[in-house]
Amino acid sequence: MTLDTRGTRAREAVVERMGDRRPDRGDLHARQAQRQRRRMRTVLAAFVVLVVLAAPLALLSLSDGTHVGPAAPGLGELPPGSQTSGAWSSVPVHGSGLGDGSAVRALTSTGDAVLAVGSRTADGVQTATVWRSEDGLNWAPVEQPQVSGALTAVEAHGDMVLAVGASSRVGGPADMVWRSTDGGRTFGPVAEGSDLFGSPAPEMGRPFVAVLRWVDGRWVAGGGAADGYGGTWVSHDGAEWSSTFPDNTVGGVDLASQPDGAVLGYWLDQVWSSTDGQVWSRVDPALPNGLGLRSVASGAAAAVGDPFHEATHTTPTPILRSADAGLTWVTDDSFLGADPSATALRVEVVDGLVVVMGSEDGSERPEAWVSGATGSWLGIPAALTEGDDGGPLALSASLGSTVVLMSGQPTSPRIYILHT
Question: What sign for the dihedral angle of Cα 229, 235, 240, 242?
């Protein structure tokens, strides 16, 4: 079977499952004309993306079906109250082991397990917490320090895991680092102190760390410095951190890995690149007019566009694709026609599939969409999100063929699972 044939069959299977979620004919003709003009300029990039992503979408078609029930293909037995429909499942937080009062703020995968970090509130006391799951369905708190506050970022490199958080309060300055050397089964403190990431500015909740990456044998943290501008910090072991970000023109810095092992630091339409997290070079990315970068997937092949020059948010949120590690971006027109009410917040690429997370039209009802390169998108079936107003989906981690999606809000009642 040729790649083109495989992509065509995958597209037909997904369109059938999506039912009437297709653009009308008038809009389709207009988009086709616009795509034809853009295709002449970006044919090489489109071909590369097709080769990389067309085959994985065919795997989703194997999970066909719209029956809502208690079991998911390949996932084994789900916790009580779970439901499944096709490639998607939903798991109640209450029965998952995360427990009531949990607020997950970051996810990572060790390859053998998924780790969630955040906080848990009981009897009015908020405690920084790490949970571990070997299947994405059943979770349990790990052995860890008993400290107030919340963890805000986590990253794994083999069996070594680092987590950063604030001990004073949620939204407070980052002042503690935990480390695990056994794949996240146990954590212990490795550093603490109000000046760990610079002089604190508690009235602004700075410095804060929102993301961690492993780059060239170093831990690299990204977030906001105490002076009100973006910040990056580097550490070999998590105990001591050096500030490295060279610019004071942005309010924060998010990080995304590149295929060659380098890392992108970005804030809207401003981008920097570094091979070690210590020395940063300014990058001038080619972006569609009026768009910045809200979220860049690991590998820098996909991003959520941010129309930050607009007075109001545009719906659906544009999804961008890149074939050169984030230097050139083009709009994925297929997403604009897939769900007119889509509001996207985050994006990841998992096993060649683009997974977009967010909500319906800026509501508190979670939603996610997945696609290969065939121009078709598969959303979470409405039956699985019915009654869930726990907030947009914004966190993800993968474990083999399982992708775990969470909203990160304390009121979120469900975890969502994509089985690829």
Answer: negative
What is the C-alpha to C-alpha distance for residues 96 and 92, in angstroms, rounded to an integer?
A: 6
Q: How far apart are CA 368 and CA 419, in angstroms?
A: 13
Is residue 319 one of the residues assigned to a domain? yes
Q: Strands (DSSP E) along 268-365, which ranges?
A: 270-274, 281-283, 292-296, 302-306, 319-321, 330-331, 342-350, 353-360
pTM: 0.83
Pairing type for strands 242-243 and 254-257 reads unpaired
43 in a structural domain: yes
Looking up tokens 């986590």 gives: 154
Give the whole-angstrom CA distance, residue 253 versus residue 272.
Answer: 10
* Cβ within 8 Å of residue 35, ≥6 positions away: 333
Q: Which residues of 387-400 are buried (b: 16+ CB within 10 A; e: fewer)?
A: ebebbbbbbbbbbe
Q: What is the structure's pLDDT at 66?
A: 42
Cα–Cα distance measured from residue 408 to residue 289, given in angstroms and rounded to the nearest whole number: 32
Q: Are 92 and 414 in contact (CB under 8 A)?
A: yes
Report if residue 232 sits inside a domain.
no
Query: Are residues 253 and 273 in contact, defined by beta-carbon separation less than 8 angstroms?
Result: no
Which of 206-210, 256-260, 275-279, 311-315 comes out lowest in average pLDDT?
A: 311-315
Whether residue 267 has pLDDT greater than 60 = yes
Distance CA 151, CA 415 (A): 19
Scan for tokens 């037909």, then name that residue.
Answer: 12
222 three-state secondary structure = strand
**Per-residue CA distances from 417 to 73, 138, 398 (Å):** 12, 12, 10
In a domain, 297, yes or no: no
How far is 179 from 162, CA to CA, in rounded Å?
Answer: 5
Question: How many domains in the chain?
Answer: 1
- The CA distance from 107 to 90, in Å, is 17
The set of residues, in sequence order, having a beta carbon less than 8 Å from that of 390 and lying 6+ positions away, is 364, 366, 407, 409, 411, 412, 413, 414
Instruction: Tell me which residue range forms the domain holding 419.
Output: 1-96+308-420
How do the residues of the chain divide into helix, strand and coil, expressed in percent and rounded to 5?
15, 40, 45
- Block residue for tokens 């474990």: 399
Q: How far apart are CA 392 and CA 408, in angstroms?
A: 8
